[in-house]
Amino acid sequence: MYREIVTDVFFDLDHTLWDFEKNSALTYTKIFDLHDLTIDVDAFLSYYIPINHDCWKLYREDKISKENLRYVRLQATFEKLGMSVSDELINLLADEYIKYLSTFSNLFDGTLDILNYLKPKYKLHIITNGFQEVQNFKLKNSMIDHFFECVVDSEMVGVKKPNPLIFEYSLTKAKAIPEKSIMIGDSYEADILGAQKLGMHTIHFNSNNEPEDEQGITIYKLEEIKKYL
């Protein structure tokens, strides 16, 4: 469908290529063990995942800072669990979470296959709202950094997806034009609507059970990209 049009493919990272939930669970298991905290990780994550999702939405909308996001998502989760945890420990766990998160390297099924498939045909890039100090480590430790020519994060630009400025910056950096570029990401709001405002083509990788993109393409497995590129 886009084979004769597209020259540049832009990917989101977390929840699209890098398996955030799996790596996050492993990270919390590690840091709870390091501090001898007896916490049921599954119960913790059942509260943490939706709380983290809501915090990231606030972060995208500039309603909370990076530091507040890191604190609040833990404080609110412990509160849901009925646990009394000191601010000192919450801040320590928040720091160690960032320290160890990128040491885990699980990717979504089909990531390496689709990147190897696309690399000879297109220029590949990353646009991420993730924190600058960990995103590059995620790419390197997952051994996929060599696939991408440009990696742009929101802290580098000063705005977050879906703000058009981060897409404009990325297109300029990649020397690409919107009409010949496609954005592939898991967030309908941040990745798909944001890119469409710039005139980019889009593929919504629906890894979070969001509503389907009625105006465009929705996929549920990365291998489905081969139908369009």
From TrEMBL:
Gene3D superfamilies: HAD superfamily/HAD-like, Putative phosphatase, domain 2. Pfam families: Hydrolase. This is Noncanonical pyrimidine nucleotidase, YjjG family protein.
